[in-house]
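Q: I have 270 residues here and want to know how they pack in 3D. Can you give me a structure?
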Amino acid sequence: MPTKKRPRVLIVFGTQEDHYKGIRHKAAASTGFGWWTTHQDAQRGDTVLFYLVHPVSSFVARGKINGRVKPLNNPGHNWHGRSGAAIDQVELLLEPVPLSAVRPRFREWAYLRQPHMSTFVPDDLTERFMRFLDNYQKPGAPEDLDLSWITAKEGKKTLAQHIRRERKRFLVDAKKHQFIAEHGSLTCEACAVDLETQFGKDGAKLYEVHHTRPLAGRGLNLTSLEDLAILCPNCHRFIHRRKPMISLRALRKRIGSRLQKPNRKRSSRK
C-alpha cells in the first residue's frame, strides 16, 4: 500500500511594507498573486507561508502554489532570473507570529536563526510548526496567575459622544424576509448555525445583517440586498476583527462550512 505523501510547506519572503499591504489586500479579496519569488523546487499544490522581514518580522499568512515554477525573465526587474510561481488562496493567520516567538519553540531548526532565503519546512517539523502558527496568541496573562482578587467599580453614568454611520432598518428587515423566503428560516451564511433551533423563537432575533461592502470610507452610497448577508453574532464579530475586513467567502473557507439550501422550507414557528 503506497505511503501517503506528506504535505510540503514552503516559506517565502516579503521584504517591504508594501508586501504586507498587498498580502492583506489579497486575503481580504480571497485572491492571490500572479507571481511571487519561491524556491526553485516548489511545485503546484505546495503550501506557502509568507514571512515578512519588514515591517513586522513575522509569519503573517498562508497560501497555495497554483502553477508551474518558472524564472522571471525581465532584465529590468529586481528579481530577474529568480524562480517564482502564482500563489492563490491567500489568507492571513489569526495573528502575525513573530520570529522571536518561533525560535524558542524550534531551537533544533538552524534556519530560524537568520532566515535569508525561501526554504521548505523540514518534514519532521511541519505538523508541529503549522499547529503552532495556527494556535499562536499574543502573550497575555500567564495561565497560572491568580486573577481572582481583581475587582473594579462599575456603573457610573458618563456622557459619551459617538459618530455613527446611518443604516436603514428597513434594509435589515427586507434582507431577513428575503432570506426566509429562499431558505425557509434564518441561518448564518458563514457557519450555518441555526440559532432558532438552539434558543427557540427568540434565537431568530440574534441574527445580524452584515454589509459585505464596508460603509466606512465609501461616503453616501446605495446599498442593495445583494450587498448584505445574514450572520450570527460570532461570525459577524470575527469578520470585523480583521483589518482589512475579510470577505464572507474567506470566512466560509476558514471554518470549512458552506450554507446548503434545504430541500424544502420549514414551517414557520409560532
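Q: Anything worth noting?
A: The first helix runs from residue 17 to 28. Residues 257-270 have pLDDT under 50 and may be disordered.
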